[in-house]
Amino acid sequence: MKSLTKFSSLPVLLSAIVLVLSGCAHEEKGIAKAASPASAVVKPAEVTTTAPAPPVAGNTAIDQAALARLKQMSDTLTAAKSFTYHSRSFLELQAPETGQLLTFVNHAELALQRPNKLRVNVEGDVRTLQLYFDGEKVSAIDVDKNIYAVSPTLTTIDDMIAYVLGKARIGLPAADFLNSNPYAVMSKEVSYAAHIGESVVNGVVCDHYAYMEPNVDWEIWIQKGDNALPLRLAMTYKQTKDSPHFLIEFFDWQLNPKLDAKTFVFNKPKGAIQAEFGYYQTEAAKK
Predict the structure, then answer these.
(1) Which residue in 16, 119, 138, 150 is a FRET match for 263, CA 20 to 30 A apart?
(2) pLDDT digit string (tens) for 1-30?
(3) Distance between CA atoms of 28 and 51, rounded to whole angstroms?
(4) 106: containing domain
(5) For residue 254, is it left (φ>0), alpha (ψ between -120 and 50) or beta?
(6) For residue range 195-226, what is the model confidence (pLDDT) as tens digits?
(7) Is 142 within the bounds of a domain?
(8) Domain contains 257
(9) How many CB atoms lie within 10 A of CB 59?
(10) Helix, strand, coil percent values for the chain (each to nearest 5)
(11) Which among 103, 147, 98, 149 has a CA at the least distance from the CA of 1?
């Protein structure tokens, strides 16, 4: 993908993890604008938030079976002491200068080991990015620029998510799937839920569901049967400027694989330069 325009700074590269991971981005407060053909610098868009609208018993806009299936998917993920998958994601953004819709494609591989290990590799229309959580600290590195950042001590994946979304200011839609209780996070603000019908994703028969929240409309395709794995996710950030669209597909799911402890250990490359999480985001916003 080296011929494609690259995002040009660590804040954007780290924030670009939003493009490649799983989940529904309930913690997401904004999303980057598309890079213009001239600058290729992506800056955050302004977002207006509204009060949560949690599911209400007896709400006829909510198909309880759609929530039950979401709960089954959540249970499938949390029951696994470890899992891995590959993903391919597409983010459609409007170029600020021309209004043309631009599509950014990314590929990722992820390995998780509960309760406190995570590894993510990202490449595509951003520079190559790697993120490690070894049970104590989060480390992220822009491989192309050889710049990395390291967090203070953390203890669980939920703690890591809170840090990444807060201090580090990295958008993680994956937070929902990686959370210790995905269903609690994903159903919290749902005001509408429906079963759309059957579908096929990469040759696998799925049930297609749609959900609505104050800030995002989302769809999920869950594999039929007891092996309730998410195979596709689509989101529209409806309160972000130009309502960007995001779609991600998951494949090569492996539940309970045996993972080498070295998988989650960050080894600083020779000559790598350390930066603080959040610093580059602030600098990019000034440009």
Answers:
(1) 16
(2) 333 333 333 344 334 434 333 335 454 444
(3) 14
(4) 10-286
(5) beta
(6) 999 999 999 999 999 999 999 999 999 999 99
(7) yes
(8) yes
(9) 15
(10) 20, 35, 45
(11) 103
**30 is a domain residue:** yes
In the numeric block, which tokens belong to residue 41? Answer: 């610098």
- Please tell me the predicted confidence (pLDDT) of residue 277: 84
The per-residue pLDDT for range 243-252, each reduced to its tens digit, is 888 999 999 9
Sheet holding 217-223, edge to edge: 192-201, 204-212, 217-223, 230-236, 245-255, 82-94, 101-113, 117-124, 129-133, 138-142, 147-150, 273-274
Q: Return the SS3 of 4.
A: coil
Residue with tokens 């409007």: 94
Task: Give Cα separations from 286 to 21, 145, 279, 282 (angstroms).
Answer: 27, 21, 11, 7
Q: How many CB atoms lie within 10 A of CB 126?
A: 26
Question: Quick one: 214 exposed, middle or buried, by C-beta within 10 A (0-12, 13-18, 19+)?
Answer: middle
Number of structural domains (the chain) is 1
CATH number for the domain spanning 170: value is 2.50.20.10
What pLDDT, on the 0 to 100 scale, is given for residue 112?
96
For residue 2, tell me if it sits in a domain. Answer: no
The first and second tokens of residue 191, run together, are 């005001």
Distance (Å, rounded) from C-alpha 255 to C-alpha 58?
Answer: 35
First to last CA, the chain: 26
Structure tokens at 125: 């229309």
Say which amino acid occupies 283. Answer: E
